[in-house]
Write a structure and sequence with these properties.
Elements: H1 3-32, H2 36-64
């Protein structure tokens, strides 16, 4: 396992967190307008992005312990 792989995992986890945040904001906007079906759809996407971010962050953390000291 190398640093580049772990860096990529962290970057992808961060991207998934950003997508989750955007989806949460969009869900909130739809719900404020009374468009609950669209709000719920975006809320579900936010949960999926958040779950993926968590899995990637966990993988990066686990793999970072496998790096040998230089």
């Amino acid at each position: 396992m190398n640093q580049d792989t772990i860096h990529q995992l962290h970057r992808e986890a961060a991207r998934q967190h950003e997508l989750a945040a955007h989806s949460h904001r969009t869900a909130s906007e739809h719900n404020e307008k009374g468009d609950n079906p669209a709000g719920n759809w975006h809320m579900q996407r936010a949960q999926e992005f958040s779950d993926r971010a968590y899995e990637l962050a966990k993988e990066a953390h686990n793999k970072s312990g496998q790096i040998e000291s230089l």
